[in-house]
Amino acid sequence: YVNNEFYKESQIVSRGDTILISTSETIEDLGHICFYDNKKTGLIGGEQILLKPNRKLLFDKYLYRYAQCFSIESKKYAKGLKVFRFNTNDLKRIFIAIPSIEEQTQIANYLDHKTTQINDLISKKEKLIKLLKEERIAIINQAVTKGLDPNVRMKDSGIEWLGEIPEHWDVAKFNLFVTIRHGHQFMSYDFTDEGIRIIKITQLHRDGYLDLSKCSYVSREQLETYQSILIKEKDILMCLTGGTIGKIIRVGEVIEPLLQNYRVGHFSSAMPNRITDDFIFWVMSSESLISQIFFQMRETGQPNIGMEDFGRMRITIPSIEEQNSIVRYLEGNTTRIDNLQNKLFKEIELLKEYKTALISEVVTGKVDVRDEKIN
């Protein structure tokens, strides 16, 4: 809230106005809009454009729906490199169709009805994705802490949060069985325009792959110096700092040299005859380990995690044969879930594209809705 002396009349938003975002760090987010459906007076900020309908010519909801179309058109006028923007003069280049107020109202009501249906369907698919994510987490955690045999004899692990584990399994300190390698702390003066890519925490994508689109580089002459931090196929990498701490990936195919940056952790088996890299990946993907990471963060108060913290963590160690069975089981089941999620993501994208196309077709008169009955 602000006092009356801190705003101008041109900033006032009233019910029925449309607000358009005129500045963004990405071209995709530029032009996002909303319909102000609040009885209380609001205020816009400096990076917003306010559209007030001439009510003799325009029904407010029709202007909002039409603005959803020309917000796409406005991207053509965007200027900038790191920050994109357009202004009111750019909007003045855009023409809109103006049917009668009655027909505008019919169009707005029809689109409200249809977009509500589409949004409800999208919401149901998003809820299903959330359930699938929860199922994935539960499957991984159950497998790496309890095993696959529901009839196996259990014993008390001696750890309150872990509870019972299979009788023949061991519980051990994480860092006794897993080797942790830190990367090199490259400085800005090390960087070149091209050469060898450096894998920072920003390259660890939340969907489990390396994003090589915005890497920093060091010169190729440095390759011999940094042989010890080369990243290879199937390596296990985790973010050890910041807001994405605990994010883990398994490296896919490597077709060029990649170097591990500081605060990207590299994990591998310290005892290959007792624990496999494949099993380590699934343990590190489990809620049982992620919760320990966040517990250590809570204790230290710092959004960083290191060797000493991992030394306080505990993991379960089944036999190598059981580890291999668990890995095969998790690879099959998580692939099934991932495929379902990807299918739902694609369906959501198609629904969003359909909604955008429907709005455009209706407000420009390409689809006549005058005789449509809204049930």
Distance between the termini: 40 Å
- By helix and strand content, what is the structural category? alpha+beta
How many individual β-strands? 18
Biggest sheet features: 4 strands, antiparallel
Low-confidence stretches: none
**Quaternary organization:** single chain
**How much of the polypeptide forms β-strand, as a percent range?**
15-25%
How are the strands of the largest sheet arranged? 11-17-14-15
Count of DSSP helices? Answer: 8
Q: Which whole number gives the mean pLDDT?
A: 90
Shape: elongated
Architecture blueprint of SSEs:
Blueprint: E1 12-13, E2 18-21, E3 23-24, E4 33-35, E5 42-43, E6 48-51, H1 60-74, E7 84-85, H2 88-91, H3 101-146, E8 154-156, E9 164-166, E10 170-173, H4 174-177, E11 178-182, E12 196-199, E13 216-218, E14 236-239, E15 248-250, E16 258-260, E17 264-269, H5 277-284, H6 287-300, H7 307-311, E18 314-317, H8 320-363
